Amino acid sequence: xxxxxxxxxxxxxxxxxxxxxxxxxxxxxxxxxxxxxxxxxxxxxxxxxxxxxxxxxxxxxxxxxxxxxxxxxxxxxxxxxxxxxxxxxxxxxxxxxxxxxxxxxxxxxxxxxxxxxxxxxxxxxxxxxxxxxxxxxxxxxxxxxxxxxxxxxxxxxxxxxxxxxxxxxxxxxxxxxxxxxxxxxxxxxxxxxxxxxxxxxxxxxxxxxxxxxxxxxxxxxxxxxxxxxxxxxxxxxxxxxxxxxxxxxxxxxxxxxxxxxxxxxxxxxxxxxxxxxxxxxxxxxxxxxxxxxxxxxxxxxxxxxxxxxxxxxxxxxxxxxxxxxxxxxxxxxxxxxxxxxxxxxxxxxxxxxxxxxxxxxxxxxxxxxxxxxxxxxxxxxxxxxxxxxxxxxxxxxxxxxxxxxxxxxxxxxxxxxxxxxxxxxxxxxxxxxxxxxxxxxxxxxxxxxxxxxxxxxxxxxxxxxxxxxxx
Length: 471
Fold this sequence. Notes:
This protein is of the alpha+beta class. It is built from eleven helices and 21 strands. Helices cover 31% and strands 33% of the residues. A hairpin with a 3-residue loop joins β11 and β12. The chain folds into two domains: 2-190, no CATH class; 202-469, 4-Layer Sandwich (Anthranilate synthase). It has a 21-stranded mixed β-sheet that branches. The protein is globular and about 70 Å long. The protein has helices spanning 14-31, 48-55, 90-103, 169-184, 210-222, 245-255, 303-314, 317-333, 372-379, 390-400, 451-469; strands spanning 2-3, 35-43, 61-67, 72-85, 105-108, 119-124, 139-151, 154-163, 202-206, 228-238, 260-266, 270-276, 279-284, 287-298, 348-351, 355-365, 387-388, 411-416, 421-425, 429-433, 436-446.
C-alpha cells in the first residue's frame, strides 16, 4: 500500500481534496489499474452503532462488531470492493485478493490509529460450500465505502473509494467532503427508534430428532469414529412484525458486554446477528491471541448457587476432558507454523449472562510470513463448534443435523492493511429476514454426554436468543 504524505486534517478544504483525488487518478493511469483510495480522519467521539442506525439500508452490505468489555466497536457499510470464494481454498483465495488490492491502494491520514486505513470485512460459513439458495456465500469479504470505529476513547472515520484514470473527481470529492463533514458533527437525531417484535407467532424445528442424533453420535464415539462432535439445532420463528437487526443488536450489546455483539448484512434484506463469547483469533503487533472455550454450566440464581455451578464445572471430568480436547486440537492445528503457544496450566470459568464456560486464553509470537488467514484456515472449525478429529466430526455434523448451518459457527471478522485483524466464531446467533428468524444453538457431545442434558443445554441457549429477538 502506498502511503502519501498528505495530512487530510491540516489540508481540510474541498480544493485540497480534489487535488489529492486528481493525483490518485493520475497514479491509476500510470499503473493501468484502478486504485483503492482510503482517507482516514480522527474525529470526536462517535458511536459506530448509532452511525449505522442513521444510514442503515437493507440493500447495502454492512458489518458491525462490538465487544464492550474490550472497549471497541466498528461499523462499515456499502461495498467499494467485494470478493467471494468457495471450497477448501477459500481463505487462501481471500488472502491473495487482499494482497492484490493493497498493492494497488493509496492511503492518507493517521494510519497509526486503531481501525484507520482500509479494512476487509468477512462473512464466512461453517462449511466450505453452501447450498445455492443460501443467504450468504461460503465466503464474502468487502471493503466498505465508509467505516466508523472506536477503540477506548479514540474514534476514526474512514472513506474508501475506487479511483480510475477517468474518475469523476468533482463528484467523488463532493461526496467525500459531505461524508466527512457529517462525521465531524454527527446528527444522532436522524436515527429512527425501532422496536423488537412482541413475541413469536409460531416456531418450527429444522432438522430431525435432536436427542436421537445425540444418541447416534454417542454410539459412534463409543465405536471410535471420533472423540467429540458438536451437534446444533435450528429453530425458525415467525412474527407479526418485521425484525430489524439493529434493534436486536442494541439489546445484545447491553446484555452481553463480554461477548462480540455483531450484525452482518447480505445486501438483500437478511442479516446474521448474535452475541458470541468465542474469539477465533486476533493478530496485532506480531502476536496472535486465541482461546480454548468448552464445557458449559448454568448460572445460579444467587451468588452461592452461581459459585456452586462454577465449582462443579471446574471439577467436572467430562467438561475438563472436553476442554482438553479443544486445547490439544489447537496445538496440533498450528504446529506446522512454528508457533510456541503460551497459556496458563488450567482454565478458568468465563461467566456470561445465562451460562458459564471453561475458558483458557492462548497467545504466541507470529513467525515471519505467517498471516492471520493462515491461522483462520487452520483453527476453523474449532472443536468447540465442530469436534475432534475434525474431518470425522464435520462429516458427522453434515449427516446428523439435517440442516445447513450457513454462517452459524463460521469465522466472522476483519483483516486490516497491516496484516492484523480479529475473527470471532458466529455462535449464539440467528439469521433474521423480514418476519422470520432462524436461531441456532449447539452442544458438545463426548463420552458421558446425555441426550436429555444436551437438549436442555440447547434450550437454555435458545431462550437467550429468543429473548434478544423479541420484546
